[in-house]
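Researcher: We're teaching a course module on how sequence relates to structure. For the next exercise, students receive a sequence and then see the predicted structure as tokens, so they can try to spot secondary structure elements on their own. Here is the exercise chain.
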Amino acid sequence: MNLLQLDQIRAGYHAGDVLKGISLSVASGQIVALLGANGAGKTTTLLTIAGVVPRRGGTISWKGEALPHAAPDQMVKRGICLSPEGRRIFPRLTVMENLIIGAYQLPDSRNASKLDRIFSYFPRLAERRTQLGGTLSGGEQQMLAMGRALMGEPELLMLDEPSLGLAPIVVEKLFAIIQEINRSGTSILLVEQNAHQALQIAHRGFVLVTGKIVLEDSGEKLLASDEVRRAYLGEDV
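Model: And here is the predicted structure for the students to work with:
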């Protein structure tokens, strides 16, 4: 079953459309990678799904039901949470305060079990729980951003460039955690500059070029595609 379905979505800023009629889907239990060069519209896609950027046309369906235009807090209530590009944590709040903000839509009584889950994924956050967010390393801030999104108990977790600026060893650990989160039952829509790493864990992938989907296939087949290897993996084929 498709958890999320986008059909002919148009969206953008000011007078121009960044997304020019894109269609994609995320099935329940899947990791789906969205690839493309800078400026292709990847972040705009996530922001449109999250309700931050209003769509100008097309349909977003959630569990088979077409959704009206909705504010970001309404999308969180439905089970769609975003960990944004650049982390955007609150640097002057502690790790615990940042995490609790992610659960503002849910009863406080559930915070303890959610925190236990997040600390099981990210033990470093448990160690740093009283530390200010702005004093964390880049990798720790990315963990915090993902943990904050998970505090909303999403059925769909959207990750925007989680590996950006991180050392390779940190990226490897982070992608292992993304797979663990997925195995626990959370579907994931992943925008990622590291196409090779993303396609290695993705069930399906979509390639976005200047606001249009130009390729769609399993992660395995896209990883083997000559076109993808030339354009996104930097390989000569």
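Model: If you want an answer key for the exercise: The chain has ten helices and ten strands. The mean pLDDT is 89.
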